[in-house]
User: What shape does this take?
Amino acid sequence: MAVTILRNAQLHITSEEFVDAQSIGILDHRIVPVSSHLLEDGTAEEIDVRGMHVCPGFIDLLVNGCAGASFLQNPSVETLEQMRRWQTQHGTTTFVPTMISGPRESLTKGLAAVAEFKEKHPTICPGIHLEGPFISQTYKGFHPSGYIRPFTPADFEFVMSYKDAIAYMTIAPENLKAKNIVDLLGAKIKLSLGHTATTYYEAMQAFKAGITNVTHLFNAMRSPMGREPGLVGATLQSEKTYAGIIADGRHVHPALVKLAKKMLGSRLYIVSDSQAVAGMSKAPASFVVGGTEIFVDHKRGLIDAKGSYAGTSICMLDGIKFLIQSCGFTMDEALEAATYAPAKAIGLQDLGRIEGGFIADLVIFDDDFKIQYVVQNGFVKSVAELI
Assistant: This one.
């Protein structure tokens, strides 16, 4: 019985059984409470974390690339492995690779790569995020216009053939018939509203049909108006919908993040929306994604020639610090937005919280937010070992 015990820890995002605990046990890749039973044979490995913070591993539901690797440009297992290494070093133990609107050939390669990668790393990658092509031309952001289109019966068959490799799909409800949405949800495909000109009424109907997620709230959707609240108004009014926010301090103003937090509570989560330049020691002046040149503007961030935002160069820990330092979140509120909230948003059953029986994915960091250890599937590694 291989047992690891982390002692003298400040635990965050826990179930009731760990609320007052200062130690956590790891047994067979799972989190367990510390008890005399775990210690009786004298073989437990004990690690004193000296009062550092221990929280669940970060869960990023929108990753385009990082560490010089772009999944859209090279949809392969090798790319995913390169992304995984960098993500783990920065505390993200579960991530969802994203593909924006593009040719069927690229989508097929991406889905096949994720299916293979997921089989090897089931807790690290729950599947792919298909961000398009069934989105709005008006609110496409930097998606290539030529690939954006309505959903067809052939698309349903295609999605069904890869359903186990799909974590969720971002759609504009105006680009799908109501029957399409019902059929996809009935097939257990998770849908998220985004890149859409949808009205308040259409959004509320989509929520009523069973959609419970919104992709990067406030970005790539119509602005709320006095007589047309749009998707933003519908989301903030909903009592069941989760919503992600790109937490780089550029995509969404802190005042709107605070408003979303006030309205959504624990249903608000953050994403990095990172591109390949995240983690690069020297970022290029520009790079290409999906045939579009993206410029690295040190004031405005990553933008295309029209000024549309095109992702970020941050990791989830950067987003957590932004919530705390600029948006008035407590540490636990910020950590929850990077762990348990995204887990619940796409239905990950045993991730995102320190709870007995959950997968032992953990991040151990000091008061300066410097990560010292990462626990992946029960295996404890120092930052030095991860490099």
